[in-house]
Fold this protein.
Amino acid sequence: MADFLIRAFTLAVLIPTAAVALELDLTEDQVAKSYSNVVATDLLVGDSMRVSKFYFCVEDNLFFLLGSATPEERSEYNPEFLIKIEAGSKAALMVSTDHLTDRRKKDVRRSELLPQFYSCDSWVKPVLIPVSTINGHSSLSEYLSSEFFQGYKMLDVD
């Protein structure tokens, strides 16, 4: 009997089964529009929107906003990431702590002032909007050297 069970188990494990998985047949924009009235691709030149720091990605060493970015509510705790659409289908990014209390501002770490740098390949059929500047700076190195960024704390090592 034990021999039969071992053979049955072995056959069950070794016989390939057809993989069944959910088909991702929508773009990131289409999914976002299923839960939000506005996404970044709906914005016109001059329009602004607060977005999450997680709606950004990198492709070929260039920085992009995902077109599927949806409006983010203002947080009393986190820095604000505000995009403004420019001519040529580009976006300017402004990182701000102006809305934070003085007590919270003194605890902000530099890492909180950076958008996330995911690979654009991580997203399903993304629509990408080039980010032209961060706080008026046209390169990441300029932004990291800026008085704004340098005015905040480094991560502490315990």
The longest helix spans residues 2-14. The mean pLDDT is 87. The longest strand covers residues 80-86.
